[in-house]
Amino acid sequence: MKNYERGELAKEILTGLATGGFIALCIVAPGLTHIAKLFKTKGARDKYRITQAVRGLQQKKLVRIKRKNGQDVIEITEFGKKRVLAYNLDTLHIKPLKKWDRRWHLITFDIPETQKYARRAVSAKIKEIGMYPLQKSIFVSPYLCKREVDFVGEFFGVRKHIIYIEATDIENAEKVRRHFGIY
Q1: Nearest to residue 130, comparing CAs of 182, 183, 180, 181?
Q2: pLDDT for 140-163, tens place per residue?
């Protein structure tokens, strides 16, 4: 098993649970043989690390262990699912195309003052994933980014306030092209 930084093993287990839903655990070899196989454990030390990571997730209420059909089953909780979404948000970025399709992808939003923290967070995250700010609440990218924008909007609970636009021409296109290195 590879060396994980502090918290990385738990993050891997939680992400795996989110994609698989739940993992049935055998009662033999303190209940974690299926997870141990996924991480290619080599000995008792590795199995102990996995056990500790699962216990930590359980203490933080990110997973729960239930008994189903005579087997222990690890299930991810709603709180755990939200944590995985936060992990996904951290790694989110727009994938550049090999050849630009000559379309601009714009988003504009009008998030109410009552949700100003969400507005700031959306603005910062949209900028972070690679969109260029044309104005305070208008961003542009030469690459398809609807999925990423939808994810950010849903995560912060303001998707209904975000409008996604595809355009063939925008004002100040040269400045934006230079920013993205498109000539």
Answers
A1: 180
A2: 999 999 999 999 998 899 999 999
